[in-house]
Automatic annotation (TrEMBL):
Keywords for this protein: Membrane, Transmembrane, Transmembrane helix
Annotated ranges, domain EamA: 10-148
Molecular function via GO: transmembrane transporter activity
A Pfam family matched in the record: EamA
Protein name: WAT1-related protein
Amino acid sequence: MASVKACAPYFYMIVSQFAYAGSSILGKLALGQGLSALVFVVYRHLIAMLILAPLAYVLERNRRPNFSFGVMLKIFILAMLGITIQQNVYYVGLHLISPTVASALGNVIPAFTFLLAIVLRMEKLNLKTVRGRAKLAGAIFCITGSLIFTFWKGHFVGGLCYFTYDPTSFRKS
């Protein structure tokens, strides 16, 4: 039983990666059908609210802190400037590129966050220690890999898609 509990975080991380990949693919399909990226983000947030609000109300009923106007204002500003802008930019970009590249670029966010923390002096980088060199090498490795992945022009691998969508197939002849 202990081994199942020890493996649970890894299982949930794998499931979340599949969910992100599925979200990218479904988002690309929806955007390809003409759905606006802004409308898609609104629908996504609305569905998330309808699912998570009742769960939060029931499961966190006894642990709710007191919210002041200042705390609520900060949460609102963070929600509008943080995830909302990020998702709008992501889905507009997804409309222009493939879901594979979008997913690969999403994995670079921790490296850019680390570099931004260094620039803003929120993180200290000591290159004299092994830990500091490993942090910098990891960030450079991650960003370089995503850039190579993004700009690589390889051979087209055709014939792998068995299910294609043809919008003209539904029209009456």
